[in-house]
Structure formats: C-alpha cells, structure tokens
Amino acid sequence: MPGTRLTGRGSIRMFQSLHSQSEAISQGGNSAMKRILFGVASLILIGLAVMALPAFTQAGAPTVDISADYRWSTDEPIQWQDTTKYKKAGPYKFGFSNCSTTNAYAVYFWETAKWEATKHPNKIAEFLTTDAGDSAAKQLSDVEDLIAKGIHALIIRPCTLDAAVPAIEKAMDKGIPVIISNRSTKTSKYVTQNTTPWFDRGRNQAEWVVKQLGGKGNIVSFEGPAGSGPAVEGFQGAMSVLKNNPNIKILARKATNWSRAEAKATMEDWLQAFPKKIDGILQQSGIMGAGVVEAIEEAKINPCSMPQSGDDYNGYMKWILKNKCNMITTNPTWASGASVVAALMILDGQPVPKQWNIPTKIYDATNIAEITDLSKSDEWMPNILPKDWKIGGK
Amino acid sequence: MSQSFEEDRPQAAGLLLAARLSGFTRLEYVSQYAVWFLLVVVILVGAVASPHFLTPNNIFNVMRQAAALAFVSLGQTFAIMADCVDISVGSMISLTQCLAAGTMNGQAAGILPALGLIAGAVAANGLANGLAVAKRKGNPFIVTLGSMAVVQGVVLLYTGGSPLGSVPDGVRQLAEGYVGPAPFPVVLVVVLFLLAHVALRRTRYGRYVLAVGGNEEIARLSGIRTARIKVATYLLSSAAAALTGIFLAARMNIGDPLVGVGFDLDSIAAVVIGGTDIAGGRGSIVGTMGGVLLYAVLNNLMNVLNVSPFYQIVAKGAVMVIAISVYQLRYSR
Known about the structure:
The complex is a heterodimer of chains A (394) and B (333).
Chain A: H1 8-28, H2 31-57, E1 80-81, E2 92-98, H3 104-118, E3 124-131, H4 136-148, E4 153-156, H5 165-173, E5 178-182, E6 192-195, H6 198-212, E7 217-223, H7 229-242, E8 248-255, H8 260-273, E9 280-283, H9 286-298, H10 314-323, E10 327-329, H11 335-347, E11 352-353, E12 362-364
Parallel strand pairs in A: 2-3, 2-4, 4-5, 5-6, 7-8, 7-9
Antiparallel strand pairs in A: 1-11, 10-12
Chain B: H1 5-8, H2 10-49, H3 56-81, H4 89-104, H5 111-134, H6 140-159, H7 169-176, E1 178-179, E2 182-183, H8 184-202, H9 204-214, H10 216-221, H11 226-252, H12 263-273, H13 285-304, H14 309-331
Antiparallel strand pairs in B: 1-2
C-alpha cells in the first residue's frame, strides 16, 4: 500500500534512535549484555536496510499517495524517469493542449483535467488551455503559443501520432516537461504518458470477437480517426491476435471518426455489400458501436448474431444491458487528471513511470450493470467528477 | 501571332482600363484602411491585455503561423480578382504536403522527384480548372468544388488515409530557418507579396486579370485573351497552394491528408476582408496581407487571452461578417 513502505530516511532515524539507546545501555550494563544488545540492534538495522533497499534501487520510487483512480498499470515493468532536473518552486503555469471536445469521451476528459487543476490552487497559478478543433496543424500552433507564454509544463492530447511532434520536441529541448495524455505520440521525447493502453484494448477486443466466432468467420472493423493513436495502436493490437487466426477474414475496415452517424451509415452500406456474410464486428468505440447496432436492428437482423466489442459510452452500455450480448473495454476519462498530478510530481522532482497507463477493464453483459448509469443520457461516460461539477463550468 | 486589339485601338482599351483602375484606386484605399484599422484595434487590445503579446517571440510566432495562409491567399487574390474563385486550394495543400513528405521520406535525394510530382499536380489541377472555366464556361465555384473533391480523393488514395512521410532537415529550414533575426517564412512572404503587388500594378498580366474579372465580355472585345488569363490564374492559384503544402510539410514534418481542410474558406475570407471584391475586377495584394495578418493576430490574441475555443470560432466569424458588410456597403453603390 502506498505510503507505508519505509524510506531510506526513516530507517536512518530508526538507526539513530537504536544507536543512542544502545549507547545508554552500554554505559550502564555489563559487556556481555552490551554485546547481545548491540547484536540485536545490528540485526534489526540490517533488516530495515534490506526492506528499504528497493526504494533506493528503483531510483527513489515516489512516496506520494496517488489516488487509486490514477494508479498506473503494472502489466509492464515500470521504467522510472528521474525528474530532478525539472524541479522548481511553484506556483506553476500549466499548458494543456487538447485535440478537441467533439465527442463524449473528450468532454469528460477535458472536464476532469479542469477539475483536477482546481484541486491544487496553491500550486497551479495558471491553467492555460487550447483546443485544436481536430486539426494537427492548429495543434502545432497551439503548442507554440503555449510555449511562448512561458509554461512550466505541457500536457498534450495529440490529435494524431504525428501531431505537433516538432513542438513537443522543442518543448523538451527547452526543459519544459511534456506529459502525453490519452492519445499516443510517435516521438519518445516526453517525460510520461498517461494513455489508455490502446494496443491492449485492441487485443482484448479481438480476442473476444475471435472467441465468439470460434476462430472462424468474417469480420468488419470500425476505427477512430486515421493516424490517431487509438486507431493505429488499437488496430495493431487487434492484428496481433488476428495474425494467429487465419480463418478470421476482415471484409472491410473504415475510420468512422468516433461518429455514431458515420458508423451507422457505414454499417448500413456494409450490410448491403456483404449480405449474410458479416459474422462479427471489431469495434473500437461505444459511440460508434451504438450506431452500428441501430443499423443492424433496422435491417431486421438480430444484433446479437454479430458479436461486437466497444467501450464504456453509456448509450452502448445501456444497449448491452438490455440486449444481453456484446462486450466493452473501458476508456478511462480520468487520464487527464493523472496528467495534472504527473505534472505536479515532475515539477517537484519526484520520479514518475515513463508509461503511466491507466488500466482498462473488460465488461460484458454479465457485469456491465456495475458501471452503466440508466439515469444518465447516452452521452455520459464513467468519470470521477464530483456530483455538483457543472460541465462547461470554469 | 496576331496583334492584340489593344495595339490597334489603343485609345478605347486605354480608356477602359484607366476608368477601371481609377475607380478601383479610390475604393481600394478605403477598403485597405478598413482592414488595417481593424488590425490596429486588435493589436492594441492584445498589447493592453497581455505582456506576452508584443514580444518578438510572439510576433514571429504569429507571422510564422500566418505564412501558410499568406501563401495560399496570394494565389486566391489573383483568382478572385479574375472572377475565378478557387476552392480546390485546400485539397491541393493536402496533396502537395503529402507528395512532399511522402516522396522525400526524410531523404535529400527525394527532393527533386517530390518537386517534379508537385509540379505535375499543379499543372494538372490548374489546367483542368482553367480550361473547364474558360473553355466550357463552367461556374468557377462549381468547377473547383469538383476538382476539390477529386484532389481530396487522390490524396486519400495516395496516403491510404493516414499521415505519412517526413522531410529532410535541409527542407525543414524552409519553416524553421532564419534570415538574420527574422524567420525565413516571414521573409519569403514579404518578398512574394512585394513581387505580386508589383505584378498586379505594373505588368500586363496584372492589368488583364482585373479587366477579365471586372467584365469578361468587354475584356474579350478589347482583345484580351481571357481564356489564357483564366488558365494562368488557376495555375498560379494551384502553385500558391503547392507552396503552402511544401511549407507545411517542412513545418509539421509529416504529410497529413487532412491538413488543407479549412484553407479554402479561410483564404477566401482573408482576401475578401482585405478589400478585394468577391465579384472580381478590383482588389489589392496589400489588402490581402492585412486580411491574413488580421486572421492570424486574432487567433493568437484569443489564445493569449485564453478565450474558450468555442468563443474563438464565434469571434472570428463576427469579425468576418463585420468586415465584409463594411465592404458590401461601399461596393453596392
């Protein structure tokens, strides 16, 4: 449990108190007693040193109590980043470059960032935000503007793997720590990355679809915007499964841009183009998944005959609860909050993992009730915002 | 080659052009002042609102960001003046950026092939647009709407939908380099705008563009080969878009099939805000510079003031409506 592990400093104090105690004893008692007590003290000291050793060998793991929501995934070995060179006294000016807020996930992501920033009023003097409107070119200009305004740390949700890479690298070269949030980037010049593990999600989704189809059948694939981290890495994750299943054939793939309407229209077309041939659907998102099942229902086909994956968009989750089929892998909206906390830790010189992935969970019809909220609209997604937080507020 | 009628009947043609130009000069001054006035207001607001605004770093940032729009608006100015609006420039920017990054792929050896392919694309698009509008009497808006779709399709086929490629360091200097204290793109914009201004006022092509845009029938009767002027103008517009594409490839170090989205309408807005009449026949290169700067400064000001992105879109639209209404009042006499 965080916070209960003894650090190097703690063991030193323990040693000092033991030493003074043994000094006091040695002055009063006989030599045999002295030696025994000294021996015991040494054993205790060695034991404590051994316990404290991991803290040192990990280049000083952080001692701060990070909220359970922001805890990083430990599926991969942790690569600690030494951030002592970024340490500076507050209060800080943060720059947050967002790709856009044109879908449900992005809205909750954005609001969580703003909320987390309000929790540290003494440390964050200014929280500057920009919105690139889904344009990689604008995002480059936005980051340049933020750098010109003298930010101490840059948090960025890149529109695509290539978006703003020159500016990200320029920021790092200038000593401004960069934190990548939610969507990945192709450069490795950043301090930490709080992304949803897109590759793992793609892999989990493909594994489930393959299993439902018994390893044999035709599938179609719906993906996010071309060139974006979720789309590219998600599909790579899916391919890592599909390459071992040669009897699964991809009939068609399309980037339907997290749009319910686009996904629905595309599925309508595919149902015409491949009549009775689609067995399963590789789906990256719940928004698009909701559109797809609508298209299938309107074609008078039972949607449960085409197993589909997705994410925790409330509209899709409500459908799963009602129809008792399909599955999701979650896309945590609080990655942005973790980024704000990561920025504070970096500017405090505390080490952070290079890959600070927020774990994703799998739900299907049997347990989706746990995270679905029937009282909320389709556009809701699970989040950690307080009940009284107003969307679109300061 | 036959002599143009201009030589046979110098007086008539001369009178026509002189009448055009003098009318244009009066309006031009007023329009120019409008955009510069707005620009000064925005700059003053920015200077008062934030200490960062008038720093050299920020100014150069703004001008570098404006460079992309400046190049394409240059071509668009001639196009609109000749009554040949070109809305395929957005897709051309995407295509040329992807051709540049995709063919070069970070290697200097790829520069010449990339330029060759881009020249081919410019020639193809410019000729197609120009011939359709000139010979087939196609409506420029509809024709370039069609070519915009075709070019966008070509980009998506070429790239497979995803961003690709990269640019060698030498070419990146086009966007990142400096000439003394000034960023290279800024210097290039100033030089090109000066050349264009001189071309418009002093060369025959410039005069003919205004004549063709003002009244095509009269221009044709005066002996101006209107078809050639239109084709040349569309080639110029595509070339300007190609320059923007190459510049953006250098700046972003990637070929993004959607990078040009928005440039078509933004370039028209910048040109019209700068005082060029959307109906053609009168306009000013310097005014376009003002329009581009106003656009970029407004963008930067709203970022500096941390205005919500949703308000930014509304604000830009409002400025455009105000500016265009002011001109329409004067033009509709």
